[in-house]
Fold this sequence. Notes:
This protein is α/β, with parallel strands linked by helices. It has helices spanning about 25-35, 65-70, 90-110, 130-140, 140-155, 195-205; strands at about 1-5, 15-20, 40-45, 55-60, 75-80, 110-115, 160-165, 170, 180, 190-195, 215-220. It has a single domain, classed as Rossmann fold, CATH 3.40.50.
Amino acid sequence: MGEHRPAGGSNDQLRVAVLGATGVTGRLLTSGASQRGHHVTAFARRPSAAPETADRVIGGSMTEVDRLEEALSGSDAVLCALGAATPLRRDPALVEGVGVLVSAMERLGVQRLVYLSFAGVHASRAHLSWLGRWVIAPVLLRKVVADHEAKEKLLIESGLDWTIVRPPRLSNGPARGYRSGEDITAAGVVPQVTRADVAAFMLDTLTSDTYVHAAPSIFTGHRQRVV
C-alpha cells in the first residue's frame, strides 16, 4: 500500500474498453485513458451521451452479447464503472451483465479487467468507521452492497486478471491525492474520495501488476505516514 499524489500517466498504450462511460466516473476514465495515449472504446446504453474523448463508441446494454463483444473485440483491457440506478433496490440486470462480461472476455481472450466496487462490501467493511461498518453498509446500502458482492464473486471465480477497486463515498471535484491498499483503514466517520482520484488509480492499476487478483481500498490521502 502507499500514498499517491496526482501525477502523470504511464507510457504503455493499450486498447481499452470503458463500460459505464456516460457516468461521472466513466467519463473521467474515458478522458483520462485518452490523455494517457490509450485507444478508447466507450460502451454505453445511450451512445449519443458518450464522451467525445472516446475513439470509438458502441451502443448497447450489458446483456446484449453481440454489442458487448463488438465493444470488447480487439481490446487489451476493460475498465468497468457501471453503477446502479438507485442504492435502494437490487439491480439483477447489472449482476447478470457482469456475468455476461466475464464470459465474453474469456471467449475473446481479453484478460485484464479493473472493476469499480465499494468499500462497504463485507470483505473490506472492517476498514471503515463504526458508522460505515454498522449502519451505512449493512443497513442503508445493503442492497447495492449485495449486488457488488455478487459481481465480485463472479470476477474472483473467473479466469481473468481482475482488480477490484473499493472506494468509500465518491465525491466530485479535482484530484486530491489518495492512499490505496488492501489493509488500509479509513480516516473520518464518513470517508470519501474524489472520482478524479478513483479514475486515476484505476488507470494506474490498469498498466501495473501490483493489484492483479487483489481488491485494494482507496481513501483520500492524509498526513499520517503509510507503510
